[in-house]
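Hi C.,

You asked whether I'd gotten around to modeling the 239-residue construct. I have! Everything is below, sequence then structure, no commentary in between.
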Amino acid sequence: MTEVFPRILACGDKALSVEFADRIDEGVNASVIALAEDLCADAIEGVTEVVPTYRSLMVTYDPLLARGRVLAAEIERRLASISAVVPEGCLFDVPVVYGGGAGLDFEELAALKGLTSDELIALHASVEYRVYMIGFAPGFAYLGGLPQALHTPRLATPRQRVEAGSIGIGGQQASINSLAGPSGWRYIGRTPLRLFDPARAAPCLLRAGDRIRFRAIDAAEARAIDGSPEQSKRESWLS
């Protein structure tokens, strides 16, 4: 049976999921972001949060102020009028120390792919990545655009702790860890940028729709960034 999209599904009595497709691509993600921005710009009474994902938008609401069926009808009305063309997200320059203590899988991955260390760095940093969604942990960035030659399955046994700022590869996806925690991804370096800082006006550095380019740096530059007061400003890392 062919699925019809977009479709709106109930998620308990406090949320709706608006699904745009059963695939992942930039156009689908742009539609997700367009609806999220519309719901933020012209708020519906009772809606408490919108959470963009790769191909769907979670809309949470207060059931004392809104009914799911009525909210779904309003979302359907808006879907008919919004444009999926949204402004390009901000372009971030993301410095990375490749290898070393934070590059837990760097040497193994280079050998697996038949690349020298320099070739692995150059390939990983050769493309522009898209932030498809923020999830798993506050500020954790799921990235699309990883070169096919670097697609690598996750580890069979996850590690119990990977440091914040670690640069990961999991299947066809790339990532940047926002907080220390367990992970089965493969890690090739670390950025000194803080993706999540509750003391900032906007705690999450990256947003769905943003774009990033990685840039190799040495340990001395990483230490300087770690201690920089500019860490508190999102604008400091825009290209």
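If it helps when you're writing up: The chain has two domains: 7-79, 91-237.

Thanks,
B.
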